[in-house]
Known about the structure:
- The chain is of the alpha/beta class.
- The protein has helices spanning 22-35, 46-56, 65-70, 73-79, 94-103, 115-126, 134-149, 160-170, 175-182, 186-200, 205-222; strands spanning 14-18, 40-44, 60-64, 84-89, 107-110.
- It has two domains: 14-145, Response regulator (Rossmann fold), CATH 3.40.50; 150-218, Arc Repressor Mutant, subunit A (Orthogonal Bundle).
- α5 (94-103) crosses α7 (134-149), α8 (160-170) packs across α10 and α8 packs across α11 (205-222).
Amino acid sequence: MSAPVVVRDCAVPRVLLVAEVRLFREGLARALVAQGEFQQIETAAANEALALLSMWLPNLVLADSATVRKTDLVPRAAAVGTPVVVFAVAEEDEAEVLACAEAGVAGFVARDATLEELTATLQTALRGDVRCSPRVAALVIRRVAVLASSRAPEGLPLTRREMEIADLLDLGLSNKEIGSRLGIETATVKNHVHNVLEKLRVHRRGEAAALVRTNRMTSRSLGPRTAAGI
């Protein structure tokens, strides 16, 4: 016999609270219920949470940062349309914040947040929005800027550094000469060259340089279309 299908009722949201310490997660669940905002809360350890996602179909998952970093809880929750709010985030730990952001969480609650702030973050996530502190927002924005600056403008799957390497390959420079020109180690240049060849699916340095050169010339010749040319 197949399991019954549970239909989510957003008027009475169900929250799955995930944390490894049982006393902590049960105490936090009772505190949230006592506030009157959330009356249906199920608690679980990380190894139990994935099964509850598909069986109980919560409207929202509240998980500690350690669980988010160490498991695939967020993508599994996204697969069934459930947002995840992460709590106990060390906002001074840039790596932790970015790991949670890149996982796709729907809200950040700092370690020193109040119960009211936690509740507000949960309510925001249920509305489909993301709530976080200005500090977390600044970290995420800087990360986006770094990722954007690393993309090659010509549309090839190369970073800006790899494009620089390809241009210098086109000049016929050796790895040692490229390293001297860019101020990096020869071994680092070798790694970049390997990545360029692999990404462009060619076997020779000259082929990679020619492909980048041709792509750049084509992009420039096309240029932005003007009104007269449309």
